[in-house]
Input
Amino acid sequence: MKSFRLLSTLCVLFPALAWSGPVHNVWSTSPFFIKDGNNTYNATSGNSALSWNESTGYAFANARATSSLGDVYEFQLVSTTATTTSYEIVGTWNVTKNGSPLCTNCTGSAYGLNMGVGSYFKIYVSGETYGLSAYVTSVFNY
Output
């Protein structure tokens, strides 16, 4: 009877354990550049939040930064298109400038996400047409 209970418990817990992967959170309050076509601008302010469950398609990413010209760019992850890793989120993104769409449902990635506080990550969308890079200011993993 005890072995049956143990086996039953393991059968219930195993799927939950099999689906659980490391969860990562990276934040930035320090963007340093924005790329818009052939132009690259210094970022004067902004915030970024990225959160994802490694080895799954579950992810959230939003990055907003103001350029040296005063334009506000926003990068929003719409959906993932590949399994996430500790280093990278690949998916479709929306990019806006002052609230107007520049690129909707465009392929892109955020990478360099596992480098730690003080290092930087990049988001590139539509090849390298649109981009944002920011210093990591906070990390929380579990």
Summary: Residues 6-17 have pLDDT under 50 and may be disordered. Strands lie at 23-28, 30-36, 39-53, 59-67, 72-80, 88-97, 100-111, 120-125, 130-135, 138-141.
